[in-house]
Design goal:
five-stranded parallel sheet, globular, Rossmann fold, six-stranded mixed sheet, disordered C terminus
């Protein structure tokens, strides 16, 4: 691993990583262990700030934030897993973790709303969206999948993070690209370059050069669908779940979406497990499914029924769900009551279901399972 800082030899992230490796939930990798040490250094710096307290920050605006970390590397190398361990290990309440494009979507929406308000005629909209963040006392912002695609984000980032860093916010981010490659070949990229310098000033930059693509290994050679009902089918899904979580049973979790919380029955090691009813018989929509697809790289759905006219609403949600999982490249395991070609028995959704069946067919193929996740900023900005 290349970085501008030496890794901490021990700490809560390293300990949590060692515990997972010790019980076989993951295969220990030297590069991942070194990255855990770098994350421990951020934890230590945040804890060292604690005596100042929030009031101290209010009265000492010049106090620098703890230096953050920008961790980049190829897909499937364990960046998300390490971010999970880090976020859980940070012993402060004023922390937030969100997908990069979701965060930027929020910033643009807040600025647009401010411009339409009476106060928005002469005041700075960037200052307006930063103010509530600072007022909340946020000290740590964790951004998953930092990747700049469009000019609207590119032109906003320097102004936004210059203010956040000045107010003592620490950034920890994961990305598939090095900082110098962000917004590569973008329109007016020279205007974006000061942000790269700002990022390097406030974050240690480190590459995660793990040996293997662990995400893809989980699904290698696996049958990801089961058909029928009963204990044998459930047991097959249980085996697949333990395979993709490294033997971790999982725990309840939540996905935050547009100001509300979506209950996740089981989550572990970047994977989530839902029942069909949890997703398709609740008032969820496409943006909710986008949020879910950005929080988990793998998913199991139990008990997908045949969908006749009595389940039209559920069928429409299922179509939306599969569209979003497919477009994102999420790995899917599922149990179906009937063969795929018999799933859609409602003439109201028959046409749309043809595409869903085609995508479900593809999602169990080796080619699909071997592909990396895809970024989808346009879905979030819409």
């Amino acid at each position: 691993m290349s970085s501008k800082s030496s890794a901490s030899s021990s700490g809560p992230v390293t300990s949590a990583y060692a515990e997972l490796a010790g019980r076989g939930a993951l295969t220990a990798d030297p590069a991942q262990r070194e990255a855990a040490g770098l994350l421990d250094a951020v934890v230590a710096a945040l804890v060292a700030e604690q005596p100042k307290g929030f009031l101290g920050k209010l009265f000492d605006k010049s106090a620098p934030a703890a230096k953050g970390l920008y961790l980049h590397g190829e897909v499937g190398r364990g960046k998300t897993m390490l971010m999970d361990l880090f976020f859980a290990a940070v012993p402060i309440k004023q922390k937030r973790r969100v997908h990069f494009h979701e965060f930027m979507d929020e910033m643009h929406a807040g600025m647009a709303a401010f411009r339409k308000s009476d106060k928005g005629k002469d005041a700075d909209p960037v200052e307006a969206v930063v103010k509530p963040i600072v007022k909340s006392g946020l000290r740590l912002l964790c951004l998953d999948e930092f990747h700049v695609h469009d000019i609207t984000n590119a032109m906003l980032l320097y102004r936004l993070f210059d203010k956040l860093f000045a107010q003592g916010v620490t950034l920890v981010a994961t990305s598939n690209v090095v900082p110098d490659q962000l917004y590569k070949d973008g329109l007016n990229r020279q205007l974006f370059l000061p942000f790269i310098d700002l990022l390097k000033e406030h974050c240690v930059v480190a590459s995660l050069e793990a040996e293997r693509d662990y995400r893809r290994m989980k699904f290698a050679g696996q049958h990801v669908y089961a058909f029928g009902t009963g204990p044998d089918v459930r047991a097959e899904m249980d085996r697949l779940w333990l395979r993709i979580t490294g033997g971790e049973p999982g725990h309840p979790d939540v996905v935050e979406s547009i100001g509300r919380k979506i209950h996740v029955p089981l989550a572990a090691m970047g994977a989530a497990r839902f029942g069909f009813s949890d997703l398709c018989e609740k008032p969820l929509g496409s943006r909710d499914f986008v949020r879910i697809s950005h929080q988990f790289d793998s998913m199991i759905i139990d008990d997908v029924p045949q969908m006749d006219r009595t389940k039209s609403d559920a069928a429409k949600r299922f179509i939306l769900l599969i569209d979003n999982l497919y477009d994102r490249g999420v790995k899917l395991g599922a149990s179906f009551a009937v063969p795929l070609e018999q799933l859609g028995k409602d003439d109201k959704t028959a046409f749309e279901f043809q595409r869903t069946i085609s995508r479900l067919d593809e999602m169990q193929s080796e080619e699909y399972l071997d592909k990396a996740l895809r970024d989808r900023p346009s879905e979030l900005a819409g």
